[in-house]
Amino acid sequence: MPTSPAASPLPPSRTEPDGSAVIRVLSYNIRSMRDDTAALARVISACEPDLVLLQEAPRFFRWRKKLAPLASACGQVVLSGGATAAGPALLCSLRATVERTEDVLLPLTPGLHRRGFATAVVRFGRARLGVLSCHLSLQKDERYEQGGMLLDHLARLGTPHAIAGGDLNERPDGRTFRRLATELRDCWATAPWGAEQTSTPADPHQRIDAILATPDIEVLGCGVPLGHPGVTEADLRAATDHLPVLAALRVPAS
Question: Residue 6 has what DSSP assignment?
Answer without folding.
Answer: P
